[in-house]
Specification:
The chain is an alpha+beta fold. It is built from six helices and six strands; from the N terminus they run ααβααββββαβα. It folds into two domains: 85 residues, Arc Repressor Mutant, subunit A, CATH 1.10.10; 56 residues, Dna Ligase, domain 1 (2-Layer Sandwich). It binds zinc ion (3 copies).
Length: 144
Amino acid sequence: MNKQSPYIQILREHGHRITQARRIVLRVIEDAAGHYTSAQIIQAVEALDPRVGRASVFRALELFTRLGILRPTYIRGGMTPVYVLMSGGHHHHVICSECQVIHDFDDCGLDDMTRQLETRLNLRIDGHLLEFYGVCADCQAADA
Ligand SMILES: [Zn+2]
Ligand SMILES: [Zn+2]
Ligand SMILES: [Zn+2]
């Protein structure tokens, strides 16, 4: 139990201290599978430890984004970003354009494309976000 988060390891490798705010924000994001707005993250952090302030949460989110642990996305179509966890450097969605239901999947099979892009553009790729849009079975049935 109390398994060490791989993201704590990333923080350490980059020479960042593991503050209480950073630890709690990571825990919230990992428990949420990474589909939280900053407001939802602040609320969940407050529930776990009221001593962690909003400013610390925002700074932690900024740092995690910079380190590639999280990415802000606009999957729910609002002005407020939803943070997703970049597990293994990537994150993938299939989203129903009608009811907005989101399916996550892990096996993108994009390793070859990544290598080719790196060679063609002569750069190093650290991660990617991938989204497919479509219509889920329920919405197709409702349309029919
Ligand atoms: Zn749907
Ligand atoms: Zn996701
Ligand atoms: Zn991928």
